[in-house]
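Subject: Protein entry, chain in single-letter code together with its fold tokens

Category: Structural biology, sequence-to-fold work with a learned token vocabulary.

Notation: Tokens come from a learned vocabulary of local backbone shapes, not from coordinates.

Start of record: The labelled sequence and token lines come straight after this line.
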Amino acid sequence: MSRKGDYYRTKAIVWFAPEIPSNFGPKNYVGLPGLVLEVERDMFTLTATKINLNPDKEIKIKRVKSNEKIITREESRARIKQIEEDRRKEYGG
């Protein structure tokens, strides 16, 4: 459900691990019979990069500040393409 109270109607592919008996995952993707590892949607993908089942402190997610720039999908792909090209040149691939 969005902040305005609307339900999301976008399809998503959600990968979860039934071997890890926790129904934890990102907001709107909880309640599956295992830990959610990845959520694929049309505009973004959320991926678990580290799993800590015994955290020492509360986990905080950094929000985008009003003075930080949010880039488009096209800008993101262009940056990734440039990084890949730079690495190929650097490593001779």
Q: What stands out?
A: The chain is about 20% helix and 15% strand. Residues 13-51+64-91 form one domain.
